[in-house]
Amino acid sequence: METSNVLRWLEGVPFFTNFKPKELEDLASRNNLFFKFEENQRIIEEGDTDQALYIILRGSVLITKTMPDKEVTLTTLNLGAVFGEMSLLRLGKRTSNAVSDASTILMGIKLDTLEGMDFKLQVKFKDQLLKVVLKRFETVNNKYTELLSRSGG
Predict the structure, then answer these.
(1) Are 52 and 114 in contact (CB under 8 A)?
(2) What band does 58 get if pLDDT is binned at 50, 70 and 90?
(3) How much is the average pLDDT of 16-32?
(4) What's the pLDDT at 89?
(5) Bridge partners for 134 per DSSP
(6) Edge-to-edge strand list for the sheet holding 104-110
(7) Could you give the CA distance from residue 4 to residue 58 in angstroms, rounded to a whole number?
């Protein structure tokens, strides 16, 4: 992938708002961080133990859960969405699948890649990741509260 295209994509993603132009240029030049998936291509498999998070730069991704008799779509993620972070943070098995919903370009960050980055860059990634996790927690809390109020609990 061309560095100039990748740089433009990174600049359009809210996750990278607080990154300096030089930091974005450095990231864009690292070809091993960017992956292209065609439609219906599996990105993450439930139960896998890899440790990486992904940020959608182009396209969309379906998050699915394997049930005994079928696969259920939980949500569709679009430009700028982060997924896979829980496996990176808790070093455990993947709890859902991720499948490209269209031709998709992702930035993938493995734990060892993150730990090998400049310290200031690590801190920025971890700060942004904390914001993502807190937002998810808030969303789950709101949904739980809504379910309780509907059930009379």
Answers:
(1) no
(2) very high
(3) 93
(4) 78
(5) none
(6) 34-37, 104-110, 52-58, 82-83
(7) 15
| Contact by Cβ (8 Å): 88, 133 | no
Q: How many residues does the chain have?
A: 153
Query: The tokens of 102 are what?
Result: 């269209």
Q: Is the pTM of this model over 0.85?
A: yes
Q: What does pLDDT average to over the chain?
A: 92
Burial (CB < 10 A; 0-12, 13-18, 19+), residue 58, is: middle
Q: What are the structure tokens assigned to 45, written together?
A: 């498999």
- Residue 126: both structure tokens together: 């971890």
3-state DSSP of 43-94: EECCCCCCCEEEEEEECCEEEEEECCCCEEEEEEECCCCEECHHHHHHCCCC
Tens digits of residue pLDDT in 99-148: 999 999 999 999 889 899 999 999 999 999 999 889 988 988 888 898 88
Burial of 1 per CB tally in 10 Å (0-12, 13-18, 19+): middle
Angle between helix 3-11 and 21-28 (nearest 10): 130
CA nearest to 40, candidates 12, 82, 2, 73: 73
Q: What are residue 127's phi and psi, to 5 degrees? A: -60, -45
